Amino acid sequence: MSIFRFDLPTTGIQPSEKLLVIKLRVLLVYAGSVAAFFVPPTPALLALMLMGFYLRTFGWEGGHHRYFAHRSFKTSRAFQFVLACLGASSGQRGPLWWACFHRAHHRHADTPQDPHTPVGNGRMYAYLGWLFDKNNCDTNLDDAKDLTRYPELVWVNKYHYLLPYLYLAGVYALGQWTPLFGGDAGIAAVVWGFFVSTLLSLQGSLLVNAFAHSPRPGWFTYRSYRTPDTSLNHWLLCLLSLGASWHNNHHRYMNSARAGFRWWELDITYLTLRALAAVGLVWDLREVPEHVLLEASRPDEGGLSTDRGDRQ
Ligand SMILES: [Zn+2]
Ligand SMILES: [Zn+2]
């Protein structure tokens, strides 16, 4: 069956599913979450939801973003595959697609070539619209040659949609056939452990796109660095995005494994990476140079810069 092809091309355009399918899948996450109003949460269901949120948000922020897009730490080929699967299970598609579009975002931040800037497009486009733009669906494998060396990553990128379904099936099995949720609770486990947790995890990424770039820093935001883009540190989103919302810091020094630069800028992804490094699953975490940390201006003093050079 073609769905399980393992001899996929590693160059050129890897086509995505049809745009309608992509839209329906996102819609399904929102619609499925509405069912939570009819399924009372229990402590066990909430724990399942939070665990799924944490694991899979780490999948896209620690995996798709900091590892695949920025190569900010090293790991084994096996754990790299685990990260790719975790990231894909969050509903944020494959690691190569994520890395290509995110690298384009950094390269062209807040210009017309930026795939999801709210500048000039509006917040709704940065939030969801860009995902439904047919120009942003396929993966140009030639833009991620460092990753296409691994056929298993090309495979996950192509069949990324299997991973959320696998996660859903696992969650159903836990609810239905284990005593953890009182038994016969497969549907309730899917509603809270899959739909609500996927919706929350997705919000972390989409809200950062929509609200961590703006020419007018507003509520909950500040700039620490004079970057040539409109990136903002958004403290209210730091839990929901596991640290991805320290976005102005990140645009200043994007290849660091760390995005929260001040002691109070909580960066759960970085803390998780430190814990994984302590047990030897990842290593060589790229840190932020001292001069970059010192360079941070006081909150709200980081104006716009026209200098696009000399940034990592
Ligand atoms: Zn950005
Ligand atoms: Zn980035």
In short:
The chain crosses the membrane at residues 27-55, 159-175, 187-212. The protein has one domain.
Write structural notes for this entry.
With 312 residues, the protein is mostly helical. It has one domain. 48% of the residues lie in helices and 4% in strands. The protein contains 12 helices and 6 strands. The protein has a two-stranded antiparallel sheet. Strands 2-6 form a two-stranded antiparallel sheet. Strands 4-5 form a two-stranded antiparallel ribbon. Helix 2 (43-69) packs across helix 3 (77-89). The chain is globular, with a radius of gyration of 19 Å. It starts with 12 loop residues before the first strand and ends in a 17-residue tail after the last helix.
Integer-rounded radius of gyration: 19 Å
CA(first)-CA(last) distance: 43 Å
Order of helices and strands: EHHEHHHEHHHHEEHHEH
Number of helices: 12
Number of strands: 6
Shape: globular
Query: How many domains make up the 3D coordinates?
Result: 1
Bound small molecules, deduplicated: zinc ion
Largest sheet: 2 strands, antiparallel
Strand content: under 5%
Largest sheet, spatial ordering of strands: 1-3
Find the structural class using helix and strand composition. Answer: mainly alpha
How confident overall, as mean pLDDT?
Answer: 93
Helix content: 40-55%
Keywords: Fatty acid biosynthesis, Fatty acid metabolism, Iron, Lipid biosynthesis, Lipid metabolism, Membrane, Oxidoreductase, Transmembrane, Transmembrane helix
Protein name: Delta-9 acyl-phospholipid desaturase
Membrane topology: Multi-pass membrane protein
Family: Belongs to the fatty acid desaturase type 2 family.
